[in-house]
Design goal:
Number of helices: 2
Helix content: 10-25%
Order of helices and strands: EEEEEEEEHH
Number of strands: 8
Strand content: 35-45%
Largest sheet: 4 strands, mixed
Shape: globular
């Protein structure tokens, strides 16, 4: 995914061996983000009210990174999987096209799309 001049490199969890990823999964000083799930989110004018107007859309991508024991500044990073997510804005004019594309069985599996 390319967003705001950054490249987010994601792999699907089905493409890695069980357990710890092999050491060659580093690219350009970054560990890959292992995609676990993705979902389209509607942002409403009143988040507490499901009937309020939709003011925007985003694609939420949940992922994990595998870290080995090391220090980052004064903090120690513990070895193991660390979960996180990113949200990428979606053009409202293209939301139906993106949804249809993600619903295709091949894309649905690849992006682990939940709807």
């Amino acid at each position: 995914v390319i967003y705001r001049r950054f490249i987010y490199w994601l792999c699907t969890i089905g493409n890695i061996p069980l357990g710890q990823p092999p050491p060659n999964m580093n690219v350009a000083y970054r560990k890959p983000m292992i995609l676990v799930r993705s979902q389209l989110l509607a942002h409403r004018s009143d988040p507490e009210n499901e009937d309020s107007a939709i003011v925007g859309w985003s694609l939420k991508m949940c992922y994990g990174n595998y870290h080995q024991n090391h220090r980052r500044g004064l903090a120690a990073v513990v070895e193991g999987w660390h979960a996180s997510y990113r949200e990428f804005p979606v053009d409202p004019a293209r939301i139906h096209d993106l949804h249809r594309w993600l619903m295709d069985p091949i894309h649905r599996d690849l992006f682990r799309y939940e709807g």
